[in-house]
Amino acid sequence: MKGGNWVVVSGQWTKRKGRSLGRFLALDAALACAACTTFAAAQAAYRMDSYVTLNGKTQRAFAWCDAPDRVLALTKPAKAPSTPQPVTLVRLLKNKPTKIQTEPYLLGPGDAGAGNLYVSLQPLRKTNIRQNDWFVHSSNVENVNDPAYRMTHIGWINTPIDTAQCRYVPDAAFMGVTAKRTIIIWENGSKITYATRNFDGTPGVSLSGGTRAQNDIGPEYTFNTAGYTYLLKFHPHAAFVQVKQGAQVLQTEPFLAYSISTPLSNPAQQEQP
Hints:
By secondary structure, the protein is mainly beta. The protein has two helices and 23 strands. The chain has helices at 29-34, 38-42; strands at 6-9, 12-15, 23-24, 26-27, 46-54, 57-66, 70-75, 85-93, 100-113, 116-123, 135-139, 154-158, 163-165, 174-177, 181-188, 191-198, 206-207, 211-214, 219-225, 228-235, 238-245, 248-254, 257-263. It has a 16-stranded antiparallel beta sheet that branches. A five-stranded antiparallel beta sheet has the order 18-19-20-21-22, with no helix packed on it. A hairpin with a 2-residue loop joins β5 (46-54) and β6 (57-66). The longest helix is centred in the first third of the chain and has 6 residues, at 29-34. The radius of gyration is 18 Å and the shape is globular.
């Protein structure tokens, strides 16, 4: 698979130049904590939660990856992956978004060192490829346990089928993928912005002036422009983005995978596209 070391700069996907560690997109906060010192954890400024939808049910994700041509996501194991734990790998190819593939794997244990964390990822099916070639890679420096980062930096998910190098948005409050696009929310004080990256290569949307509301279900973000309303709604069991023209709903897209970065000083705060 073709991949690059991608980041978002000024709202645009940009290929990083120079030395590359390879980055992940969304890693469950528990993984980051496993590789951090007590002091670093005490300095954490954000809580990061990741989710994946599998067979119509949204559940916690261990990690997910927005690669240039595919989306990979791993369900969260029942226990910390200090020993091999059963998980499901979810795969969506962006040129075939209606066909979602799943495969059972064993996740763990992890190996940390030199600013990196590698967690073993072994398929349950037989293969002739060396097993130590498969892993989930993240940074144990750039993560939510450091107040400088809203999301943990994930670099690769390697499997017998995929070598997926993942895009990373350092300051995103929310990042998620539907079957058609990647959606990002940035929230800096009262300034809330929204951007999309369409899988089919058509121009995405960039909006500013968003507002956030909170009810008993969860947070929502609203953006209004030229008679259109963009609504992103999140709660622990589902998330979706909806576009309306006046009172007419034009489209609703559920999220396949998404991550939310919440300031620890305000646990109710969440994000949307």
